[in-house]
Amino acid sequence: MRQHTPPTIQVKAAGGIRTIDRMLQVRSLGCSRVGATATKVILDEAREKLSLPPITVAAAPAAGY
Q1: Are the C-beta atoms of residues 39 and 20 closer than 8 Å to each other?
Q2: What is the Cα–Cα distance from 20 to 14, expressed in whole angstroms?
Q3: Burial class (CB in 10 A: 0-12, 13-18, 19+), 42
């Protein structure tokens, strides 16, 4: 697709993108966007490769009236 579209058109990879390595592979093919349900896994892998600590999220207080 990248070869047949102008540079102003963004190409999105979706389906099967579950790891940082796969995401980097499709980026190297010219995809400028990635749709993934495994975002947490991908971000955790990226932080590990960069020697950064994992992201932690505090639990939100229970909503009530």
Answers
A1: no
A2: 13
A3: buried
Least Cα distance to 42 among 3, 65, 10, 16 occurs for 16
What is the pTM for the complete model shown? 0.72
pLDDT in tens, the chain (65 residues): 888 989 899 999 988 999 999 999 999 999 999 999 999 899 999 999 999 998 888 888 887 77
Is the separation of the CB atoms in 35 and 12 below 8 Å?
yes
Checking DSSP bridges between strand 12-14 and strand 33-35, what pairing results, if any? parallel
